[in-house]
Design goal:
Length: 282
């Protein structure tokens, strides 16, 4: 696991993720930063940290490509990140391309269980999914758990979104979760004094607090990502700004808000179909 890369992503990069999802990522990062054990490099790449099989794309006898989108979404997630529960945008892209090459393909189904993830990489996959729809290939999203934040950005461009009545949908918005360690440094007798080439260069540096100018700068970054997110959702979904304030909706609420098209009892009829092959990303 590239810990510096993960720390940078968690504490300085914009995320489209639920509070619970980010808290889970934060907890894992804290464990690794404190020297807690991580999966071994020689671990089985087909299993996660707990020995469960890693989800892979499947193709049914009826020509339905089922692509799992499970866990926290990340751009260029490595094997260890995926073994700890991350889902890489790279793998979703690979699965979509593989599905389009399936002979007698009838449709693509995105089976989603995700709280969202990083903004970096999200819009490119969301646009790719929308282009697939616009090309005439039917693509659907389905969940019996959650489609939130960046994951909803991916689902928005599908032909349809189906969810069970107890599923959690939405959390449409963007955050940057800065870690202000200035008080901890002060209690240890340290004072961070930065010499920078400009007032924004040291934004979020460990041991410092944000200035008003730095906060405005980060707010601008959040607003820029949300502008893309908002425009994409409004282009494909019959909803409005009232549904995009960062809140989550349960099944029927999501249906009433125009965030899902259909409420279903379960996804078993699609996901339990006999499969010809496993074609997941390597």
């Amino acid at each position: 696991m590239n810990l510096p890369h993960i720390l940078q992503a968690v504490y300085t990069a914009p995320w489209a993720i639920t509070r619970e999802g980010w808290s889970a990522v934060h907890a894992i990062v804290k464990q690794h930063a404190a020297g807690q054990p991580v999966p071994k490099l020689d671990a089985d790449p087909d299993q996660d940290f707990f020995g469960n099989p890693m989800p892979k794309m499947q193709v049914t006898d009826a020509g339905v490509a089922i692509i799992p989108i499970c866990g926290t979404l990340m751009n260029h997630a490595g094997l260890l990140e995926k073994m700890c529960g991350a889902c890489s945008y790279d793998d979703i892209r690979h699965d979509l391309d593989t599905a389009l090459g399936v002979r007698a393909l009838q449709k693509i189904v995105l089976h989603i269980d995700s709280p969202g993830g990083t903004c970096n990489g999200s819009q490119e996959i969301a646009d790719k999914i929308a282009r697939i729809r616009e090309s005439g290939v039917r693509i659907e999203a389905v969940t019996d758990s959650q489609i939130c934040s960046a994951a909803y950005n991916l689902a928005a461009g599908c032909n349809s979104i189906s969810a069970t009545r107890t599923s959690v949908i939405g959390s449409i918005g963007v955050i940057i979760a800065m870690l202000d360690e200035s008080l901890a440094y002060e209690m240890q007798g340290y004072t961070r004094d930065l010499i920078t080439s400009g007032p924004l260069k040291g934004t979020g540096y460990p041991g410092t607090s944000l200035s008003s100018e730095q906060r405005a700068y980060l707010q601008g970054t959040v607003d820029a990502y949300f502008k893309m997110f908002r425009a994409h959702v409004l282009n494909y979904r019959p909803t409005n700004d009232e549904s995009m304030q960062g809140q989550v909706f349960i099944g029927e609420q999501a249906y009433d808000a125009g965030l899902v098209d259909e409420l279903i009892e379960d996804v078993g009829t699609v996901l339990s179909a006999d499969c010809e092959d496993d074609l997941g990303a390597e």
